[in-house]
């Protein structure tokens, strides 16, 4: 047990803050007790403090594993601002000279260093492991812990070696932190770090001031211009998938009298920095960018984030739209969707390793579900993060503002869940739907599912209808996707209860974007 400390006084003394943000205090107490801790907090929530403060309080040096050199440097500088001794925080990575490394080691062995930031690549080096074996380590902090999971947005294979290396250096408690909160990623992290029993502190990922909307992608450029005409003098970001589209769209906007600049990784560094600065200084209203733009950019008053192309994952969508309205003011998030874009994205994946393709496909399916569904967008997004959003109508998304026509879904839900059970909960949604609709393909034949009497028992409705039933049953929590396999449909406890006593449930039809597209094109 750590000695009793006045945490508020420590917070004030070391960081100058008067109060803790969110559940920082509970997290810190858990770390101080020497327990494994898992923190899921959206960006800007104040994760760093959750390990910085205990590191200052506890004896020994905390090892902070962080993937980005630039991030490490910022954090070390920030820590030094609060201390008289520069030795209080150091980093160890490939950018350091031999002399600098020796100074770091000297300070650590002298007991001056409370926080040592290391890149996973440096942590895996034998000489560093040997050195750290001599050090008294208070705990390990794994920052950006989603890098462990192939289902996260920034998978790094070195992150998977952290656990064995910790065992080699010497066991100490672990605190893992991330802003990626999908149940799949969370499970991967806990399993890989051997901390399935950790206390989990999860903040809400809801952003109440953001308005979510999906529009069919027909004449998107024209619509974007129309929207931006009402946002003159305000800051907007428009994301496109390709560099070429970024250039094209920025040009189109400029021609139409909108102050816009492009930003993507293929531009030279100085132009890129210049465009970014112009956006930050509000000399330009709009930045048209690939997802290279936005990391670490903290412009609080972005009023609009548009996605010209639908993103590859909902996680990415959440992070990118998250850059709107950080000051708590208005933030509109509009995505343009067409199924053709999804097919394009699938095509891009084709050269990749099979496992990666499979993950990419599953993540894309979630995006499709989000776009096509007429369920509250907020509810769908938060469900993706494993969070229950209980409010019936958020009032700040297109689906809540313009609800679709409802239908009685009791019979369909029962039929779907009975089929999932009949198939012994061993299949993904597409297969279950194929059995319901009586659609023969290779997989159906190999399982001989076309020979069971129930084959085609739901063929009074099409695949699209059944997809909507699956999605809405997922959001309601009647069915869940298996966490290990990701995708096999299981019936939850509440699903079993519903099956025993089915009650009337109204569902909404999915959007039919393809039809809309055809109509406007002719
Ligand atoms: P995250 O890593 O979760 O994105 P940070 O650790 O960078 O968030 O913190 C976000 C901002 O909140 C930083 O500017 C930080 O100084 C500030 N912050 C953190 N904790 C507190 C607090 N208790 N009171 C006030 N500001 C805080
Ligand atoms: Zn809503």
From TrEMBL:
Coiled coil: none annotated. Residues 28-199 form the Helicase ATP-binding domain. Residues 223-376 form the Helicase C-terminal domain. The gene is recQ. It catalyses: Couples ATP hydrolysis with the unwinding of duplex DNA by translocating in the 3'-5' direction. Signal peptide: none annotated. The chain holds residues 1 to 522 of 725 of the full protein. Keywords: ATP-binding, DNA damage, DNA recombination, DNA repair, DNA-binding, Helicase, Hydrolase, Isomerase, Metal-binding, Nucleotide-binding, Zinc. It comes from Carboxylicivirga marina. Its EC number is 5.6.2.4. GO terms for molecular function: DNA helicase activity; hydrolase activity. This is DNA helicase RecQ. Belongs to the helicase family. RecQ subfamily.
């Amino acid at each position: 047990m750590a000695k009793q400390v006045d945490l508020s006084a420590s917070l004030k003394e070391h960081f100058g803050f008067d109060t803790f943000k969110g559940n920082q205090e509970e997290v810190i107490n858990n770390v101080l007790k020497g327990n494994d801790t898992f923190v899921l907090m959206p960006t800007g929530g104040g994760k760093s403090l959750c390990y910085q403060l205990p590191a200052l309080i506890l004896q020994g040096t905390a090892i902070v594993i962080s993937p980005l050199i630039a991030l490490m440097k910022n954090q070390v500088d920030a820590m030094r601002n609060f201390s008289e001794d520069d030795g209080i925080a150091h980093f160890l990575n490939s950018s350091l000279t031999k002399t600098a490394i020796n100074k770091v080691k000297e300070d650590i062995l002298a007991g001056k260093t409370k926080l040592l930031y290391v890149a996973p690549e440096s942590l895996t080096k034998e000489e560093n492991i040997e050195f750290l074996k001599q050090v008294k380590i208070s705990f390990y902090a794994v920052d950006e812990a989603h890098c462990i999971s192939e289902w996260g947005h920034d998978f790094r294979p070195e992150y998977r070696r952290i656990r064995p290396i910790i065992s080699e250096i010497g066991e100490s408690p672990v605190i893992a932190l991330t802003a990626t909160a999908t149940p799949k990623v969370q499970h991967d992290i806990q399993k890989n770090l051997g901390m399935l029993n950790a206390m989990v502190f999860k903040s809400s990922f809801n952003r109440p001031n953001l308005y979510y909307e999906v529009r069919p992608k027909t004449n998107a450029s024209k619509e974007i211009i129309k929207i931006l005409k009402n946002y003159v003098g305000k800051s907007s970001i428009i994301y496109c998938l390709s560099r070429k589209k970024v250039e094209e769209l920025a040009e189109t906007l400029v021609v139409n009298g909108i102050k816009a600049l492009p930003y993507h990784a293929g531009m030279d560094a100085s132009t890129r920095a210049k465009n970014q600065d112009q956006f930050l200084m509000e000399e330009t209203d709009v930045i048209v960018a690939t997802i290279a733009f936005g990391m670490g950019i903290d412009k609080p008053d972005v009023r609009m984030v548009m996605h010209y192309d639908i993103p590859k994952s909902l996680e990415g969508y959440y992070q990118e739209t998250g850059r709107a309205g950080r000051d708590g003011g208005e933030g509109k998030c509009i995505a343009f969707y067409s199924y053709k874009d999804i097919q394009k994205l699938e095509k891009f994946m084709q050269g990749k390793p099979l496992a990666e393709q499979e993950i990419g496909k599953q993540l894309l399916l979630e995006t499709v579900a989000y776009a096509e569904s007429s369920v509250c967008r907020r509810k769908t997004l938060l469900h993706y993060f494993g969070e229950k959003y209980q409010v019936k109508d958020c009032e700040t998304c297109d689906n809540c503002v313009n609800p679709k026509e409802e239908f009685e879904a009791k019979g369909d839900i029962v039929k779907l869940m009975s089929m999932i059970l009949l198939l012994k909960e061993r299949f993904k949604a597409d297969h279950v739907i194929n059995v319901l609709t009586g659609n023969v393909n290779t997989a159906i034949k190999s399982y001989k599912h076309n020979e069971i009497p129930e084959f085609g028992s739901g063929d009074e409705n099409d695949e699209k209808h059944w997809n909507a039933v699956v999605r809405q049953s997922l959001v309601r929590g009647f069915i869940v996707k298996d966490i290990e396999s990701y995708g096999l449909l299981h019936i939850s406890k509440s699903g079993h209860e519903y099956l025993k006593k089915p009650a009337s449930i109204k569902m909404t039809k999915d959007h039919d974007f393809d039809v809309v597209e055809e109509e406007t094109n002719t």
